[in-house]
Hints:
- The protein is an alpha/beta fold.
- It contains 10 helices and 7 strands.
- The radius of gyration is 21 Å and the shape is globular.
- The termini are far apart.
- Residues about 1-15 have low confidence and may be disordered.
Amino acid sequence: MSEVMESAASSADETEAGGPPIYAQAPRSGEFNKLRKRLIRLTREALDKFGMVRPGEKWLVALSGGKDSYSMLALLLDLKWRGMLPVELVACNLDQGQPNFPKHILPEFLSGLGIAHRIEYQDTYSIVTDKLPAGATYCSLCSRLRRGNLYRIAREEGCTALVLGHHRDDSLETFFMNLFHGGKLAAMPPRLLNDEGDIEVLRPLIYCGEEDLQRFSDAMAFPIIPCDLCGSQDGLERNAMKAMLSDIEKRMPGRKDVMIRALGNINPSHMLDSRLFDFNALFEKRTQS
């Protein structure tokens, strides 16, 4: 079941707070304005650096009801209001049939703000619980099923991109999980193409810190939907990486920002991957000198 709602008239595009309607109740404090500007700057940097924007395209913005996706939606709407994001946005929530999921929250929130959106119900929860034993972590399979449905919805809505709310800390946690447990250097990329080659996945919050997004979400008073409705939390490995990174940041403030920048500053000749650097060519250069 799906529902598509169109945006309200352009006369409602501005509020007294200075921004799109989603900012109507935002704080007027200097502290919040600094936070908002920093997140806007980091989001715009990611959009520009990784070439995410093609004017006139249409994006499906995945909205789970958590702090990250709410914040992403607000920041993208902010950039549109400022004339810096010439794309059409459609927010999308996939109701996966978790017990006690509050179905009314997101439709009421989006409709009240005149935000174009689609709400779709697909009971992937029953599939997950049927395939996995009791007590297992559902997150991985649940995520794959959700992603497949979002790709389908993006196609049906004529969207060229699926936009996700993963942030700096998500990418760093994935990097260290791969380093410690997967024997490879890999993180969450800011931009990738799906296997079918027709939908891009974009992560415009890749430079934004989770702490800032939490403070932004709290200040905006978004109607948060908890992520533990199914009774399953993310795996112990990711939680361990989160704790490790928090400890590093506490001991050495600013390290997370340094690490996320390091992921974009790779020197292949100083790594150990002969697929990325021809070490045999060094011998040829030496003998020719």
